[in-house]
Design a protein that fits this description.
Helices cover 71% and strands 13% of the residues. The chain is elongated, with a radius of gyration of 57 Å. A hairpin with a 4-residue loop joins strand 1 and strand 2. A six-stranded antiparallel β-sheet has the order 2-1-6-5-4-3, with helices on both faces. Among the domains are: 38 residues; 131 residues, 2-Layer Sandwich (Beta-Lactamase).
Length: 320
């Protein structure tokens, strides 16, 4: 037993000596191995930390790329919507231009038709005047030709000015024509007012009743033979007991040579309206000026009386 122990001890000592001879002291070897292990462990931890940093950077780059892709998809969708909207706008603009061109074409056709209607009405007026002159020796033909001339002049005024109110009345003040717009405005049928007294359609003006208006216009026509007579602030009677409607009218006497045929009554034109407004403004200004002069004269008289009173008071002496 002791011999075996000594043998094992000798073997162990020989092994230690062999290791010391090859590697040196085992404790120093263990220390070197331990320091290298710690260095490797630290290196490993550093690599793990660096890997963590790289992984975080990769995650950030991945999130950034995802955000960029999302924004690119949003921008692509917005661009597609903008392109579609632009195409719709261009299409609608094209349709609007087509509608405008169509409206312009219709307007040009309407203007051309109106010009043609006016030219036709003027030609009818000329023909009616010729017919009237040719029928001067025949009383019946003269009356009929006068009626035709009067009606064609009224139709010409209705076509030329487009006014809502156009009437024609013969020399006896009987209605012979009423424009469609006049009938619609007043609510009458042509059969209701044809051959009626034209002044029955007038309830008067702001300052005159219907009878006074008739007398004034007839006197002006017979005495002065004017080209036209203005009748501002007139009131036209409407059907079905509705309130009268206001209108600024122009009365145009129609003559054939020296013979008075009748009158055409129409709404005033823009030029006539401007002239009327200027005249009314001038009349108001003149009335205001006269009123101011009257007030100034009264003030001057009052100042003179006050001056006389002051002089009289200065002449008084105090009583002792």
């Amino acid at each position: 037993m002791v011999g075996a122990y000594n043998s094992i001890r000798t073997t162990a000592i020989d092994a230690i000596r062999t290791v010391r001879g090859a590697f040196g002291d085992p404790s120093s070897l263990l220390r070197r191995i331990s320091s290298r292990y710690r260095a490797l462990e630290e290196t490993n931890q550093s690599l793990q930390r660096q890997n963590g940093v790289y992984k975080a950077q990769l995650d950030v780059e991945r999130d950034t790329n995802h955000a960029i892709e999302t924004r690119n998809r949003w921008l692509t969708a917005q661009l597609a919507e903008a392109v579609a909207y632009t195409e719709r706008v261009v299409e609608e603009a094209g349709e609007a231009l087509q509608r405008r061109d169509c409206a312009m074409t219709q307007l040009e056709a309407t203007v051309a038709a109106k010009d043609q209607q006016i030219a036709l009405s003027e030609a009818r007026v000329v023909a009616a005047e010729r017919q009237y002159r040719a029928a001067q020796h025949w009383k019946r033909d003269i009356i009929e030709a006068g009626h035709v001339l009067l009606q064609t002049r009224a139709e010409l005024e209705a076509s030329r000015s487009g006014r809502a109110v156009v009437f024609a009345a013969d020399h006896n003040d009987r209605v012979t024509y009423a424009s469609p717009k006049a009938l619609k405005l007043l609510g009458y049928d042509i059969n209701e007012i044809e051959r009626a007294d034209v002044y029955s359609l007038l309830s008067g003006t702001d300052s005159k009743n219907s009878s006074q208006v008739r007398i004034t216009i007839q006197r002006e026509i017979m005495e002065n033979r004017p080209e036209k007579v203005s009748l501002p602030h007139a009131r036209l009677n409407r059907s079905e007991e509705r309130s009268p409607v206001g209108a600024n009218l122009t009365i145009i006497p129609i003559y054939a040579g020296t013979t008075y045929i009748g009158t055409v009554i129409r709404g005033e034109s823009k030029d006539e309206k401007q002239i009327r407004l200027k005249a009314e403004a001038a009349a108001k200004k003149a009335a205001k000026s006269r009123e101011q002069q009257t007030v100034e004269a009264e003030l001057a008289g009052s100042n003179g009386a006050l001056t006389d009173v002051r002089k009289w008071l200065k002449g008084l002496r105090p009583i002792n």
